[in-house]
Amino acid sequence: MAQMMHPAVGNVAMGPRRDHFRFLACALALVGAVTVASALAAIIAPGIRSLLLQEDGIIEMGTVLFLGAAVLGAGAATALRGPRVPLVLAGLIALAELLDETSFGSRLFGFQPLTLYGGGQLDGFHDLLILAFRLLQQVSHNLAWLLVVLMLAVSVGLSLFALRQIARNMGGATTWLSGHALLFLHVSFIGLAQVIDIAASSRALAAVEEVLELNAAILLAFYVAQQGWEVSTRHIRPSGTH
Predict the structure, then answer these.
(1) CA-to-CA distance for 64 and 14, rounded, in angstroms?
(2) CA 64, CA 214: separation in Å to the nearest integer?
(3) CA 166/CA 223 separation, integer angstroms
(4) Rounded to 5°, angle at Cα 230 from 227 and 233
(5) pLDDT tens digits for range 111-165
(6) How far is CA 43 from CA 49, 51, 204, 233, in A?
(7) How confident is the model over 175-197, as pLDDT tens digits?
(8) Model confidence at 86: pLDDT above 70
């Protein structure tokens, strides 16, 4: 039976480990390059900081582009191959974050977002966490900061877990969990960005937040590409069969 197996089927059986490694390596390489380039640009050419970090600046537009690619990729794969939980979940996450980055479209269509309790506007899902923090502060400052500490602990823990899965994948020990390492890392980056958004006010940390969000969008786009590729390879069948 093994000798009669179509070569494409054999490649599909061997493919997941190699495919996981390829997508992981490309995503992490791009994240590293973006992080280093952003840091060097801010240090060597301080005048470019405003272009990088301003509203609708280079970093934010890059985040929007990668999130848009993730939404379109997940939608296309679902339309072509049918719904799969990882792709649908990733597509919904990307859509929510895309709406968040574009202020629910308020800047595109010119409408005024709702006023946020304590100041500012409710122009993104991340503002719900800020709202929770402010409401908890009315009850207890310690309780409010406990929320931030818990978010930080979960985000760091998820980062370490994702990195462990990535290390196992690169070591050849591919598992179901390691196949979703990019999604775990994405969620951890978003969590860290939200902790900074709630708890910090310095310009340096604001820059870190923007870069984290861009890197998270890159990871999510590559995760969608990875899952879409795996779904497409599962549809390969031996010639002459139905």
Answers:
(1) 34
(2) 8
(3) 13
(4) 150
(5) 666 667 766 666 667 778 888 888 888 888 888 889 899 999 999 999 999 988 8
(6) 9, 14, 11, 44
(7) 777 789 999 999 999 999 999 98
(8) yes
Cα–Cα distance, 147 to 125 (Å, whole number): 17
Phi then psi for 45, rounded to 5 degrees? -125, 75
Mention every residue, 6+ apart, whose C-beta is less than 8 A from residue 17: 169, 172, 174
Rounded to the nearest 5 percent, the helix, strand and coil shares of the chain are 80, 0, 20
To the nearest 10°, the Cα dihedral for 153, 156, 157, 161? 170
Record the pTM: 0.83
Q: What is the DSSP letter of 111?
A: P
C-beta separation of 199 from 187 below 8 A: no
Which structure tokens are listed for 130?
């800020």
Alpha helices in 82-125 (DSSP H): 85-101, 106-109
Q: Cα angle vertex 92, ends 86, 98, to 5°?
A: 130
